[in-house]
Amino acid sequence: MKVQKLTQEQAYTAVAKAIPPGTKLISAAAQRWDVVVVVRDCESVSNFHKTITKHLDDLKKKGSILRALSDLYDAICSEDYQEELESAGLSCKVAHSFLFSGATYKVWELKPDNKNRLYFFPLKDGLPNNRKAVFMLMAYHKKDNKTPSEVSDYCEKTIKLILQARGEIEYCEEKNVAKK
Predict the structure, then answer these.
(1) Where are the beta strands (DSSP E) in 47-143?
(2) What is the pLDDT of residue 179?
(3) Which residues, at least 6 apart from 13, have a Cβ–Cβ distance to it below 8 Å?
(4) What CA–CA distance (Å, rounded) separates 123 from 135?
(5) Phi, psi (deg, nearest 5) at residue 113
(6) DSSP state, 149?
């Protein structure tokens, strides 16, 4: 399985096409967790990027997701990034859980407002050089309170692939993953 590291600059550019004025970027050296996206190969666009294009179709949605990304990149400078997210006032909760190989795994969601969500999966083991990563799975605009099967099914399937690939996950060379 191949993953691309998603820098804060690349994440912002994927959502807003430019870094918002006055944005303070977090140094990669300060981050305790990588933010990554799963890619078919190192030249392909991730599903995460495709969901940004599909579901974030107005400025309010994009602004909401930019806030969530900003808080996430601040939080991953700490080992306990979820505690940091909560202290920033961003809701971080389980969106879906499932059994796989005798263990329970969780799809997490960042909830910057009532409707917009970022879905992710944290992994502490099975990555090169003992890295830890937050796998960005989807950006989504919910229409009701329940996590739709479109989201939970895709996220569960992707997490199972990630878990099966532990120990064999390869990082692509770092470059701009926000390309079209």
Answers:
(1) 91-100, 103-111, 116-123, 133-141
(2) 43
(3) 19, 176, 178
(4) 8
(5) -155, -165
(6) H
Q: How confident is the model at residue 19 (pLDDT cuts 50, 70, 90)?
A: confident
CA distance 83 to 149: 28
**Taking the CB of residue 77, how many other CB atoms lie within 10 A of it?**
15
Residue at token pair 């770092």? 174
pTM above 0.90, yes or no: yes
Flag whether pLDDT at 94 surpasses 90. Answer: yes
Mean pLDDT value across residues 8-29? 90
What is the H or E stretch that residue 128 is in? Answer: none
Joined together, the tokens standing for residue 77 give 């400078």
Instruction: Report the distance separating Cα 177 and Cα 54, nearest Å.
Output: 17
